[in-house]
Amino acid sequence: MMSYLFHGTSFLLVMLFEFGFLGAMIHPFDLIPLGICIGIYHIFHLRPYLGGAWLLGFGVVQDLHTVSASGDIVLAVIFAWVLMYVVEQHITHISLYAAIGTASAVVFLWSALRAIVVSLFSSPVPFDLWLRESIIAAIVAAITMWALMIFLPRFRLLLSQYVRVRV
Amino acid sequence: MQTQWAIRFLLILSVGLVIAVLTRTNIVRGFGGRFFGWLERPFTVIGTDSSELGEVFFASREELINELKDREEQVLHLALAASEWEDAERSLEQAEQLLGYSQNSESDVVAAKVLVRTRSFQNEELLIDQGALQGISVFDPVVTGDGIFLGVVEDVYPKTARIALVTNAESVVGASLLDQPGTTGIVSGGHGSLVQFGFVPRDTSVAVNDLVTTSGIDPGIPHGLVIGLVNSIEEDENAPFLHLFVEPLADLQHVRMVGVIKSPAI
């Protein structure tokens, strides 16, 4: 129960940080896909349902922050399912670089598919704009994933010394 | 196993679609928007402030120099606007005071705006935008909006006039202490921001902060216009007179509007 509360609180804090703090910043900082990267991190650390929940939650929050339909929730479901399937069925371990590459690719594809959905159901997104933003987001995602893979385990270890919750 | 994953995918997708549809409803969007908007506000404020810092941090030297120039220009414009605003506000305030004074005064008062101010240690003068065409003549007394004596008209031109302030070295006017009849002495300028109140008989009862007014001995200058307060008293046992220094009550530095008391037509 405490674990759920911890993950719920950390998800809310990360979302507020991403859409509040980072969203108010200039490019490229507002393109840091923190929620997606944490979701992928959990999936690759063999907590696929937790990772999937993070991706889905991110999709919901992103959708709430978008005026027009952007298909974020459906995209979140698809990516979560694909990653969960791959992790559970086809791989036994993953390297740091593979995680970074996956996060980068997911973010790029997510941005591209999102642009297509927005173009179809709302106003068309200029090609150069979405390409530029997708590339920047992919690069930033790679850096974020690298930082998460390096620092999050240490942070969890540090936290577990003071908080008796399995996180 | 593959079928199980396919079923799982369909289940998750169905849940996702239901959530996607729900998030498009006004109730969820309204509540969610308010909830996140309220919680995100402090984060957004910090993000905006940090972003401004980030702009400075990541900007190139040229961008920063240009930004600095723009900011300096903006500051200059704002300072000018603020100065004009303050000036206009002061003029308005003094004009209103002057209007009140002229309505209560028995004399004919002409309101004038200060055009130019000449200021040196010995020579303090004003140029006003009213002149002979408005009936102003030489030696007419000039007062501030609250009726405090400021100086006299020294020269008159058709549309302007030159005022010698009470602190001017050439300014001389008969003065008396408040509530004391007759002329007590002569107030003269040329002593910086103070004026000298000379030729005051030694037996005169006077103290610091006593009010000094015009005595009315000068032609055209009415009795009772406030000049200032006694600042210091210099007493020489061998001299027949006291020497007082008076601090003028008129704000000579910031006067924008003045009233010229016209001499009655002969």
> Could you say what the CATH topology of the largest domain in chain B is called?
Thrombin, subunit H
Q: What is the end-to-end distance of chain A?
A: 11 Å
Number of helices of chain A: 6
Backbone shape of chain B: elongated
Q: What's the CATH C level of the largest domain in chain B?
A: Mainly Beta
Largest interface, with Cβ-Cβ < 8 Å?
A: A-B, 32 and 32 residues
Major sheet details of chain B: 6 strands, antiparallel, barrel
Arithmetic mean pLDDT of chain B: 85
CATH topology of chain A: Arp2/3 complex 21 kDa subunit ARPC3
- β-strand amount of chain B: 25-35%
In N-to-C order, the SSE pattern of chain B is HHHEEEEEEEEEEEE
Q: What proportion of the residues of chain B is helical, as a percent range?
A: 25-40%
| CATH A-level architecture of the largest domain in chain B | Beta Barrel
| Helical content class of chain A | over 70%
Number of domains of chain A: 1
Structure in a nutshell:
The complex is a heterodimer of chains A (167) and B (266). Chain A is mostly helical and 167 residues long. Chain A has helices spanning 2-22, 34-44, 48-64, 72-89, 96-121, 127-162.
Explain the overall architecture.
The complex is a heterodimer of chains A (167) and B (266). With 167 residues, chain A is mostly helical. Chain A contains six helices and no strands. Chain A has helices at residues 2-22, 34-44, 48-64, 72-89, 96-121, 127-162. The radius of gyration of chain A is 16 Å and the shape is globular. Chain A starts with a helix and ends in a 5-residue tail after the last helix. In chain B, the strands form two sheets. In chain B, strands 1-2-5-4-3-12 form a six-stranded antiparallel beta barrel. In chain B, strands 6-7-8-11-10-9 form a six-stranded antiparallel barrel. Chain B contains three helices and twelve strands; from the N terminus they run H-H-H-E-E-E-E-E-E-E-E-E-E-E-E. Chain B folds into two domains: 2-58, no CATH class; 109-262, Thrombin, subunit H (Beta Barrel), CATH 2.40.10.340. Helices cover 37% and strands 30% of the residues of chain B. Chain B has helices at 2-23, 26-58, 61-104, and strands spanning 108-119, 124-128, 141-143, 149-156, 161-165, 172-177, 185-191, 194-201, 211-214, 226-234, 241-248, 257-262. The model of chain B has no long low-confidence stretch (mean pLDDT 85). Chain B is an alpha+beta fold and 266 residues long. The chains are: A mainly alpha (167), B alpha+beta (266). The interface between A and B is medium-sized, with 32 and 32 residues.
